[in-house]
């Protein structure tokens, strides 16, 4: 059969495990959170998400169709995918709102990493909540480990937006800017502010980019500063 996709070749893989969901109509997110968060996490930093298909295949084989298992058993499933970190999460109905919580564990010794994350909002905002929780998770890892040179840039940017697409475009644009690839930076940063028009850091960097392309004090540059 096909080889399973894992994080064996990456020193810092992250496995998102099925969430324990409690509330009417929330069960669809038990496995859905694995897909959504893994897609969000991949490419946000030097860490890489273990493919959701690998995680779910391992989980269903070793645990079955439930997310209510002992922590040690859940972490063993995550470790079997080749990941370094595991995200163990839950979701609960709190009146008319949903609360999503995620804890992060280092699979080398089973210890908890950082403060994890918690977000809350209406059921209509669930995709935005997943984005915000993803940002909290990766920021918590970066804050706790301090391993990556991009950590400071990520923390600063993530404080100013809860949109994963906006953050992803900003980080791409910032990398182009630092390499003096200003046309590429402009395209990525423009996408960032289109995703989140309130993302002040992206506007500021975009204004700087226009300054290099069109000259200091250009109309386009001033509009974003």
Task: Describe the protein's architecture and organization.
The chain is α/β, with parallel strands linked by helices. Helices cover 50% and strands 16% of the residues. The protein has nine helices and seven strands. Strands 1, 2, 3, 4, 5, 6 and 7 form a seven-stranded mixed sheet that branches. Strand 4 and strand 5 form a beta hairpin. Helix 4 packs antiparallel against helix 5 and helix 6 (164-178) packs antiparallel against helix 7. The protein is elongated, with a radius of gyration of 19 Å.
H-E order: EEHEHHEEEEHHHHHH
Give me the secondary-structure category: alpha/beta
Counted by DSSP, the helix tally is 9
Main pleated-sheet profile: 7 strands, mixed
- pLDDT average, as an integer? 83
The coarse overall form would be: elongated
User: What is the total tally of β strands?
Assistant: 7
Instruction: Measure the end-to-end span.
Output: 54 Å
Give the DSSP E fraction (strand runs of 2 or more residues): 15-25%
Percent of residues in helices comes to: 40-55%
Query: Rg from C-alpha positions?
Result: 19 Å
Low-confidence sequence ranges: 1-11
Q: How is this structure best summarized?
A:
The protein is an alpha/beta fold and about 220 residues long.
Keywords:
single chain; 225 residues; alpha/beta; 9 helices; elongated
Explain the layout of strands and helices.
Layout: E1 13-16, E2 20-22, H1 29-41, E3 48-49, H2 52-62, H3 71-80, E4 85-94, E5 97-106, E6 111-112, E7 117-121, H4 126-145, H5 151-159, H6 164-178, H7 182-195, H8 200-214, H9 219-223
Parallel strand pairs: 1-3, 1-4, 2-4
Antiparallel strand pairs: 4-5, 5-6, 5-7
């Amino acid at each position: 059969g096909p080889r399973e996709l894992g994080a064996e070749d990456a020193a810092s893989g992250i496995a998102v495990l099925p969430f324990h969901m409690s509330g009417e109509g929330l069960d669809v997110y038990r496995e859905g959170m694995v897909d959504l968060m893994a897609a969000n996490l991949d490419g946000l930093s030097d860490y890489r998400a273990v493919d959701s298909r690998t995680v779910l295949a391992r989980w269903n084989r070793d645990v079955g169709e439930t997310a209510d298992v002992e922590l040690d058993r859940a972490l063993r499933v995550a470790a079997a995918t080749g990941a370094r970190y595991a995200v163990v999460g839950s979701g609960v109905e709190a009146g008319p709102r949903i609360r999503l919580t995620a804890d992060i564990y280092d699979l080398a010794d089973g210890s908890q990493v950082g403060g994890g994350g918690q977000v809350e909002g209406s059921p209509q905002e669930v995709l935005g909540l997943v984005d915000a929780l993803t940002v909290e998770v990766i920021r918590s890892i970066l804050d706790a480990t301090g391993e990556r040179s991009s950590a400071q840039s990520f923390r600063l940017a993530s404080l100013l937006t809860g949109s994963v697409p906006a953050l992803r475009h900003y980080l791409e644009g910032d990398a182009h800017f630092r390499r003096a690839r200003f046309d590429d930076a402009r395209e990525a940063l423009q996408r960032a502010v289109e995703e989140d028009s309130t993302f002040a850091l992206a506007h500021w960097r975009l204004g700087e980019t226009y300054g290099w392309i069109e000259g200091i004090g250009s109309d386009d540059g001033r509009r974003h500063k």
